[in-house]
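sorry for the late reply, my laptop died twice this morning and i had to redo everyting from scratch. anyway the thing you sent over, i finally got around to it. pasting the sequence first so we're on the same page, its 249 residues, then the predicted structure underneath. double check i copied it right bc i was rushing
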Amino acid sequence: MLVENPQGGYSFVAGGAAFSAGCVARADFEIVHAAIRPALPLEAGFDLVARHLESLGRPRAALCGVQLRIPAPLTPAQFEEFNRPYVEGMQAWGLAVDGRIPVARTNVAPAAIRVAHPLIAGFHFTAPATATGATFVLSGAAEVAPGPSGKPEVVARGDISAEGIARKLDAVVATLSGQLERIGAAWPDATAVNLYTVHDPHPLMPSLLARIGAGGDGLTWHFARPPVTGLEVEIDAHAVRRAIVISGR
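ok and here's the structure:
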């Protein structure tokens, strides 16, 4: 189930055309999270990522996760159009492995403080391990699951009642639980779990936290929407031992 990326120092679970479902570092490497403050437009942001990796003596192939912010959710056609230059950029960096993009991605639309254009707010990369223990990053997943026909469908489409949101969260947790199993990890291993939605999750929080085993560290709620219209909730997660902040100024 895992695809090796020896140049990057990690393995990944194949996902969609533009990103993997998640990455896990090899035993001799670890994944590091870098936040960019303030977030930068995509071109400037990826230039910063390249400079940072070069300063550490790491290849561009070490990039294994990207956190994007966009002005508003996109239609499926717009989302496909958005992904086209993104994939081309990944390919131009020489990151594709067996024709797949290995880099995990979260791409959401902030709803409280809007952004004027797509931004990169952070990234993950591999570096030589400083200790033992698995590190990983999961791409953001929304409430899409196989329907009766076997084709992917939006769970509880259009239903933003408490029951509808609960069904959506169940679907997202099930998807990510499967990705964790594929990389040999579990929810309690995560050092950060992020929930993206504009709907009040508080009534559902006890059952959600119990299900993902995040009772100690909890999770972070971001007032934001998934990247495609018609979706209401998204969750991502990572396990890192090192987290840094890089100035975007």
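The helical segments are 42-55, 76-92, 162-183, 205-212.
thats about all i looked at so far, will dig more tmrw
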